[in-house]
Each structure stands twice: as C-alpha cells, then as structure tokens.
Design goal:
The structure holds two protein chains of two kinds.
Chain A lengths: L5 E12 L2 E12 L3 E5 L6 H8 L9 E9 L2 E2 L6 H6 L1 E4 L10 H11 L5 H14 L3 H4 L12 H13 L5 E5 L7 H14 L4 E5 L3 H7 L2 E6 L2 E7 H4 L7 H7 L5
Parallel strand pairs in A: 3-8, 3-9, 6-7, 7-8
Antiparallel strand pairs in A: 1-2, 1-4, 4-5, 9-10
Helix pairs in contact in A: 3-4, 3-6, 4-6
Chain B lengths: L1 H45 L5 H6 L3 E2 L7 E2 L2 H32 L2 H16 L2 H20 L7 H25 L3 H9 L4 H12 L1 H17 L2 H6 L17 H8 L8 H33 L1
Antiparallel strand pairs in B: 1-2
Helix pairs in contact in B: 1-12, 3-6, 3-9, 4-6, 5-6, 6-9, 7-8, 9-12, 11-12
The chains are: A alpha/beta, B mainly alpha.
The complex binds adenosine-5'-diphosphate (ADP) and magnesium ion.
C-alpha cells in the first residue's frame, strides 16, 4: 500500500447514542506525524470521536456509527482484525487508569495480549516505554508494586507508557491533564514534544493554551460539528475563519 | 425558619447516628448470645466426659444405644465435607460463569430476565429442594447410573449446588459490576480480546468479591439442613464415591434434637456439633478476611 500523508481520514462521520446524535457529519484528515489538537466545550463529542477511531465505540451499547473512517488507508469498519487496529493506536484516558496489576504488568499488558511471552523482550519493552514516559527513574526499583499505588501524576505517565507499549503509530490523548498537577502536566508535555517526531498525535484538550503549545493544527469541535480546522497560528490569530472559534479560543464562552 | 430547620437537622442526624450504632452493636450482641447459648447447652458434657478423640476419630455414632453409647462424628463430618465439596465444585464455576455471562455478555432485557430467574431460584424454600432431590433427582440418578438408590452425595451435592448458586451468581455479578468501566475501556484499547479482558483484568479486579461469593456459598452449603436431610440418604457412612449415601452434621441435629431428652448427654453432644459448625463457619470467615486483607495489603 502506498503511504500517503494522511494517517486518518474521516468523512461525514455521524454517531448516535440511541436517539441522540452527538457527532453530526464530521469530516477531517489527520496528517502523518502531526500533532492535531482537538478543542471544544465539554459534550461536544471529542471523546466519542476518539472512541470511533480505535473502535472501542463498538462496545458502547446503543451507539450507531455511520460515515467512513480510514486509518492508514484502510476503512476501519471493514477490517477483520480490530485488535491489530487497536494496537496501532495508543489511547490515554482523562483520568489515569492504572489497571489493578503491577507497574510492570501494566506496561507489559498490551505486548502480552499481542502474544509476546519472552521475559527479556518484555523487560526491554517495559523499560523503554517507562523511559519515554519520563517515569522510569521513579519506579525502576518497584516495578512489582501495584500500579494503583502511584500518585495521580505518576499513574497518568504510567498510562502513557502503557499506551506506547504496543509501539503505536498514533497516540490519542483525551484531556490527559484534567486530574494532574501543572508540574506533571508540563513534564508530560515535554514527553509529547519528544514523541511528536515519531508518531501521529491527537491531543484532545480542555486547555486551549495547551493545544497552542503543542499542536501543529487545531480542530475546533462544537456541538457535534467541526466548526473549524486550521493551523495553530490561524486558529489563534485575530481572524480565524469562524467567529465562534475566536470567541472560544479567547474565553468568551466554553 | 432557617434556624429551626438547622436544629431539626442536627437532631435528626444525632438520632440517625444513635440508630446506626444500635444496629451495629445489636448485631454483635446477637452473634455473641447465639454463641453463648449454643456453648452453654453443650458445655456440661464438653468439659466432663466428652472424648474428642472419639468424636473426631470414630465413625461409630450410637447416641441412643442402651449398652454401647458412642459419639463418633467422623462420618458426619465426612458427610458434610463431601456434600459441600461436590456442591462447591459445581456451584462456584457455574455461578461465576453465569455472573460473567450476565454482566459482560447480556444486553439490558435478557439481563433483567436472567436476574429475575435467579432471584426466584433463591426464593425456593429448602424443603422444596429436598423434595426435588427425593422425587426428581432420585429416580434420575437410579436410572442413569443403574444404582440401587439415588439418595447420595451426588444428589445432595447437586441440590446444594443449585441452592447456593443464586447467592454466588448475584454476589459475583455485583463484584464484576463494581469493576470500573474505565478498566474495560483501557484493556480493550490495548488490544485485549473479550476473553483476555475477562481473564486478565475483570477476574483479578473482582477477586475479593468473587472470593466472598464463594465463601458465602460454602457457608450456605455447610449450613444447609433440610434439603440434604432429604437428598443424601441419611446413612452414617464415610463415602468412597459420590454414589454413597451419607449423613451430614446439620441433618443429624435436625433429625435427633427432637428425640433427645433435654440436657441429656445426647442432647449436649448435638450442641457440641452445633459448636463445631459454628467454628467451621467462623474459620471460613476468618480465612476470607485474612485473604482479603492480604490481597489489599500487597
Ligand atoms: N455511552 C454513552 N451513552 C450515551 N450518551 C453518551 C455516551 N457517551 C457520551 N454520551 C453523550 O454524548 C455527548 C458527547 O460526549 P463526549 O464525546 O464524551 O464529549 P466530550 O468528550 O467532548 O465532552 C455528550 O452529550 C454525552 O452525554
Ligand atoms: Mg471527553
């Protein structure tokens, strides 16, 4: 397959939960190795969009999806191996979710699910992911304690390490800083700056300034529709295409 | 107006607290007084004449013999143990499996229907289960295994398994439901299949609740009386296979207490069996507690 510049191609995406339509015809492309910021008030469908991309929306009762989503040129509704798709995508949830197992097992979870059994290989993978997430030095002596015993900020870095553990091409972060302190937030932002050259990053954020610091382009999602997408300079300029974008970015509402 | 409401609220709150304390204290009081009562009825013989070697080591149970009185409860203990063991080896996997099915694979409607059925199962009185063992299971076992009698460990074990399943299912289901959805989402997003999710995340996360479910099931099995009295054949015997008839500790108390003259040796021995049952459940609960604590403390 020819590698294009488009990593994810979303066309006319509609999502309903029961009767309620929460994404109403979203069309956008995510370029390879860019950081795409997605901003918008809560309830506007940002999390839903991420769930569509890795198809965890499948397990939400009552969710109905229409439209096309292509990841790496493949229509994700047609693919047979949904697990392979999910391994291509790392997902970081708003609240840190340390799975109830040791730090090591948390990070080794996805590789094991993918069939890696060799202990040495797992150890290498775990170390490299924890290093990338800037957590290694803090936990290297207690890899076999429960992940849930870590502080909130450490747990969030653990989930980032975990999201990197299956060597994804795409990293999605959903309001990762909502429950952690500013210092840890800045550390994670530094981590993301390191990662941006190697993977495509979708950064859903409630902090518009965070999007400004990190994103190449920004999509403004409003009420289930794409209000505007453009380069970060344009979105933060005095004259983005939409008046609403200007108002949201400048804190008039939100 | 505002002030009055505040005062009323303070009083109500204080009253609630007293009430809750009272409930807590009375629960402890009840347990202690039951223990005290059972202990007192058996104490006289327990500390005078009772031979623990015979009680735990002999299968000769002749409490009403004129010339050769024997109180060997080993066969009764074996009866209780065998029925409980068989029941649990059926009910625990079945119950946890059913709970997984209900909580992870069922949509709204089917789930509600199954839960109602399980609640109905829990509402069937013990004596009806005994009756089923006697009139339904008995001939089936006789025909299926070409056995002379179908009242045995197998029959009692199946009946007790059916009786203790509802509680195991509902507590296990609660335990699984208490696992946060974020765990499910995280595991799926990491490429886990449904079975990997269940095996690697949900079961470990719910293990305390599942353990509690299993232990409550054991408690139910050990304490069950009427149904096993009717389904196990009531013959004093150390079983060598599930086709042997047995008699359990509980069934012995139920069958003999009415006949034993109050405060006679026989009567007191039956209470010693009560103490034994009490101790067994106490040990089970204590182990559960320690195990749960061990898991938490790690
Ligand atoms: N599992 C669900 N079932 C029903 N409605 C949902 C579900 N998840 C989200 N919603 C609704 O969909 C809308 C969009 O939610 P979400 O995608 O989480 O938005 P955001 O992440 O931008 O806050 C919200 O109104 C929310 O209430
Ligand atoms: Mg959200």
């Amino acid at each position: 397959m020819v590698k294009t510049d488009v990593m994810i191609e979303i066309k006319d995406l509609h999502v309903r939960y029961g009767r309620r339509e929460v994404l109403r015809g979203v069309t956008l492309d995510v370029y390879r190795n860019e950081v795409l910021g997605i901003i918008g008030p809560s309830q506007s469908g940002k999390t839903t969009l991420l769930k569509v991309i890795n198809r965890t929306i499948d397990s939400v009762p009552g969710a109905v999806v229409s439209g096309t989503v292509k990841v790496d040129g493949e229509d994700i509704r047609q693919i047979k191996d949904v697990y392979a798709l999910r391994r291509k995508i790392g997902m970081v949830a708003p609240l840190p979710v340390g799975l109830p197992m040791t730090i090591f097992d948390n990070v080794a979870f996805a590789p094991r699910m993918a069939g890696i059994r060799d202990r040495r290989q797992l150890e290498k993978r775990v170390e490299s992911c924890l290093r990338q997430a800037a957590l290694w030095d803090e936990v290297k002596d207690r890899l076999d304690t429960l992940g849930t015993k870590l502080s909130g900020g450490q747990q969030q870095r653990l989930t980032i390490a975990r999201a990197l553990s299956h060597d994804p091409e795409i990293l999605c972060l959903d309001e990762f800083s909502i429950a952690i302190d500013p210092v840890t937030t800045m550390r994670i932002e530094d981590v993301l700056k390191e990662l941006r050259s190697r993977m495509t990053i979708i950064l859903v954020t409630n902090l518009v300034q965070q999007a400004r610091r990190l994103a190449d382009r920004i999509a403004f999602l409003f009420n289930g529709q794409l209000e505007e997408i453009g380069s970060t300079e344009v979105i933060f300029s005095d004259s983005p295409r939409s008046r609403k974008t200007y108002e949201y970015v400048n804190g008039v509402f939100g | 107006m505002h002030k009055q409401r505040r005062r009323w609220e303070v009083i109500a709150e204080a009253a609630m607290e007293v009430l809750i304390r009272l409930c807590g204290v009375s629960a402890i009081l009840f347990i202690l007084s039951i223990f005290f009562f059972v202990f007192r009825e058996g104490a006289g013989f327990l500390f005078g004449g009772f031979d623990p070697r015979e009680f735990f080591g002999s299968i000769e149970w002749y409490p009403t013999s004129k010339t050769n009185v024997r109180y060997g409860a080993l066969a009764l203990i074996a009866g209780t143990a065998s029925v409980s063991l068989l029941a649990m080896s059926i009910a625990v996997p079945f119950g946890i499996g059913a709970a997984i099915f209900i909580s992870e694979f069922c949509g709204g409607r089917l789930r509600e229907i199954l839960k109602i059925i399980i609640e109905l199962l829990a509402a069937i009185p013990s004596v009806v289960w005994g009756f089923i063992g006697l009139t339904v299971m008995n001939p089936i076992i006789m025909r299926l295994f070409d056995a002379p009698i179908g009242l045995n460990v197998l029959n009692g074990g199946i009946i007790v398994a059916l009786m203790s399943s509802p509680i195991i299912v509902s507590i296990s289901e609660d335990a699984l439901k208490a696992v946060p959805d974020t765990y499910r989402e995280a595991a799926l997003a990491l490429g886990a299949t449904k079975w990997q999710l269940i095996y690697r995340v949900l079961l470990p996360a719910a293990k305390n609740g599942l353990l509690a479910a299993g232990l409550l099931g054991v408690g139910r099995a050990v304490g069950e009386t009427m149904a096993v009295l009717m389904a196990t054949g009531h013959s004093i015997n150390i079983p060598h296979s599930v086709m042997d008839s047995v008699r359990t500790l509980t069934a012995t108390i139920a069958a003999e207490l009415g006949e034993a003259p109050v405060h006679s040796e026989h009567y007191q021995v039956l209470f010693i069996i009560g103490i034994l049952l009490f101790s067994i459940t106490f040990v089970i609960n204590l182990t559960a507690d320690l195990v749960v604590r061990g898991i938490r403390g790690r």
